[in-house]
Amino acid sequence: MKRRLVAAALLLCMTAPLLKADEGMWLPALISQRIEDMQAKGFKLSAEDIYSVNQASLKDAVVLFGSGCTGELVSDQGLLFTNHHCGYSYIQKHSSVEHDYLKDGFWALSQADELPNPGLTVRFLERMEDVTAIILKGYKSKMTEDQRQALVKKNADKLKAQVEKEGNGIKASVEALYYGNQYFLFVFREYRDVRLVGAPPSSIGKFGGETDNWMWPRHTGDFSIFRIYAGPDNLPADYSADNVPYQPKRFMKISTAGVKEGDFTFVYGCPGSTQEYVHSEAVRYIQDVSDPEKIALRTTRLGIMKKYMDQSQAVRIQYSSKYASVANAWKKWQGEEKGLRKNRVVPVKQDYEARFEEWARGTRYAWLTEMLSNLYAQRNPIYRAYEYYNETVRAVEKIQKGMGRYVNPKDYYQPIDEEIFVAMMEAFDKALDDQYKPAYFLEKREEYNGDMVAWKNAVFANDDEAKALAVALDKHYAQEIVPKVKELSQAITLRYRDYMQGQMEFEPGKAFYPDANLTLRVAYGHVEGYSPADAIYYRPVSTLKGIIDKDNPDIFDYNIPQVLRDIYARGGFESQPVCFLATNHTTGGNSGSPVLNADGNLIGINFDRVWEGTMSDLVFDPEICRNISLDVRYLLFIIKEVGHAGYLFDEMEFAD
Ligand code: ARG
Ligand code: ASP
User: Fold this and answer.
1) Residue 642 within any structural domain of the chain
2) Is residue 535, in this structure, part of any structural domain at all?
3) Which of 228, 244, 259, 476 fits a 20 to 30 Å CA distance from 511?
4) Closest by alpha carbon to 335, among 585, 612, 622?
5) Is the domain of 294 the same as that of 266?
6) pTM for the full model?
7) Which of 82, 83, 218, 608 to mutate to test the pocket of ligand 1 (most atoms within 8 A of CB)?
């Protein structure tokens, strides 16, 4: 009896910390390890409903959309939802002055009106499996890291070729998990005829713009609708007018029952990149060096763009997409830096490392944290130079052109680029030691007496001068900077392979999930608000009333279409839900991911996180990390009331 109690208490100790936090991005094929916890928190389905290779499961209704977003199937005719910001570049390509679909939205009136998007693909996961033994076949412990990598590549290429022999759109990839302690094979089927079905006007799909990006309260109708087409055999085919809507093995049913605080939710999608198990020195570098320096550089760059964008509508259109992508990471880093400090992540990790070292004494894991610390001390200066190249000189479009890269003249405004040139060259020169600069740069600096404006005038007046500078910078970057960064990063990864394994042995009761790497994952949590600061509590659901409150024709980001004002004026829509918060652990790449309820039905589309919680790529704090989703009921509302495309409902299935 007593012994059983002790065992039960031990078990509790081991599982209690897991039950508290909603941290984690789990591999669907191993979800059976989490299913009890999911069910304890409210999930009503089984592991087989999430992932199965024997029968249709929810995984068959999720795709990797393009190269970095997620989408979900919502009808038996290949209808797909993703975010507006994931479909943005395709909507833009179809837009012209006569049909400005970005501005006005687009709704295909029939399947014949749906617009093809050359180059856009979606990937369904057929299966995933642990192939560590196959990938490491022939490995000997005395091999160098280079030899090991060559072996891994050879074995992986062979395996991929075997799998891809099948054809019919089958693609394979082998991914390292836990820094190469484990290898997984992912087999996809890739469809390449994906057509645009509908998108709201940007004033809905991008409502709040950069002002509200990464923020709560949020009111962005961030969705777009596509349809996957297949050959007559339902297999992938190049675009053809004869193709037919793809019939998925499974699609998601839509729940309009709504969400309330505490409801179970899970997100099924493709998170891109996280670093949850890194050394305190890696975090310290991000918090004290990388984030602040990159933020400052981008503040300057964005200021220059904005000055000209505010002066001219034409320039605003030219630069809106560039501005958005520069601003997106810029704003995220600010939240991340603050979050890391507030959570004292560096000292907490240092304390962990001290305990780890104590435990590791005399084992093969001894001194690992110290070795990592030394490696970071070696890597950081060169890595900083690498980041400076990317954020300064490589951010100048004239230099990009000089390197032979294509810069779309339609979206180029030279006065912006000239000003960015001067500011970024000055920052580059000031921040970096001369050893990180090419000899050509040092000579020219001398020639112009350090006067960047004079240098700029020469570069913009003379393409040969521009080219000479670009080539010199590019060569130095490619030959002196990148190889050293690679070499040190490889040495670091090698140590992490042991450190990762060591951490797992050090904390045998903890459930470890592999860092995100754009492979399919499940994150689960619940609807919940949060407190961003003392005395403030944010409720988890936003409504149409909030849009009307923000509406302001004089502020570009808050100028809603007249039709929305008219609809609201009709009355009865005050409490129309728009977005909601939940505790699911997500990151970039999860955009467009389905958000499902306890019954596995679609309640929302993930599109962002709250600013205060963006450090979740390094450490997840359940108090403050929240994902932001579009409430599927707002999507339905916009389709019907704004798009007048309610006929799309006929092919959807509603759960309640
Ligand atoms: N912050 C979101 C994500 O990281 C949305 C980005 C697109 N929207 C924007 N306003 N830039 O992708
Ligand atoms: N907005 C991100 C994306 O595009 C999602 C995130 O970072 O939370 O994937």
Assistant:
1) yes
2) no
3) 259
4) 612
5) no
6) 0.94
7) 608
Task: Please report whether residue 537 resides in a domain.
Answer: no
Q: How far apart, in Å, do the first and last CA atoms of the chain sit? A: 48
How many distinct structural domains can be found in the chain? 2
Residues 604 and 627 both lie in one domain:
yes
477 and 552 in a single domain? The answer is no
Q: Is the dihedral of CA 15, 21, 25, 29 positive or negative?
A: positive
Looking at ligand 2, which atom is closest to the CA of residue 272?
9
Q: Pick the range with the lowest mean pLDDT from 14-23, 84-93, 509-518, 570-579.
A: 14-23
The pLDDT tens digits for 362-415 are 999 999 999 999 999 999 999 999 999 999 999 999 999 999 999 999 899 999
* Enclosing domain of residue 199: 2-274+513-529+542-651
CB burial of residue 434 (10 Å; 0-12, 13-18, 19+):
exposed
Mean pLDDT (whole number) for 30-35: 96
Whether 534 is in a domain gets the answer: no
Give the burial string for 350-367 (b: 16+ CB within 10 Å, else e). Answer: bebbeebbeebeeeebee
Ligand 2 centroid distance, CA of 548 (Å)? 25
Q: Tell me if residue 280 is catalytic.
A: no
pLDDT given for residue 146 in this prediction: 87
Token output for 621: 């704090």
In terms of domains, do 251 and 368 share one? no
CA-nearest residue for atom 5, ligand 1, is 608
For residues 262 and 311, state if they share a domain.
no
